[in-house]
Amino acid sequence: MSDSYDDYEAKMQLAEHEWEMVKTEHDRAVELGKAYERGWNAALAQRKPLTDEEIILIVADCASSHQHTDIHFARAIERAHGIKELV
């Protein structure tokens, strides 16, 4: 009978350990979700139209740098909105 009880105790300890691991992973996932949401909200807060003056300055900068490509202009607009290039 003690073998059965010992087996039961071992199984219960294993189940408790597994439950703690599940809770830990869940907590990590929740924190990751919160961090993502904070980043998303910050990105949305930056999303506002450029003023005419800001656009004129970007166009002038692109023209003066002799990089008249559409991609250079698009990247300048992205930078103005706080969008960074991935490295």
Can you walk through the features of this model?
- With 87 residues, the chain is mainly alpha-helical.
- The longest helix is centred in the first third of the chain and has 45 residues.
- It has two domains: 47 residues; 40 residues, no CATH class.
- It is built from three helices and no strands.
- The N and C termini lie far apart (63 Å).
Features:
87 residues; 2 domains
SS summary, helix count: 3
Helix proportion of residues, in percent? over 70%
Q: How many E strands?
A: 0
| Number of individual domains | 2
The Rg value, from CA coordinates, equals: 27 Å
Order of helices and strands: HHH
> In terms of per-residue confidence, which ranges show pLDDT below 50 for 5 or more consecutive residues?
none
Question: What gross morphology would you assign?
Answer: rod-shaped
Our estimate of the beta-strand percent is: under 5%
The biggest sheet, with number of strands, parallel, antiparallel or mixed sense and barrel status, is: none
Structural class: mainly alpha
Give the overall average pLDDT: 78
Distance between the termini: 63 Å
Per-chain topology:
Blueprint (H helix, E strand, L loop, with lengths): L1 H45 L5 H13 L5 H11 L7
Helix pairs in contact: 2-3
Summarize the structure.
This protein has 87 residues and is mostly helical.
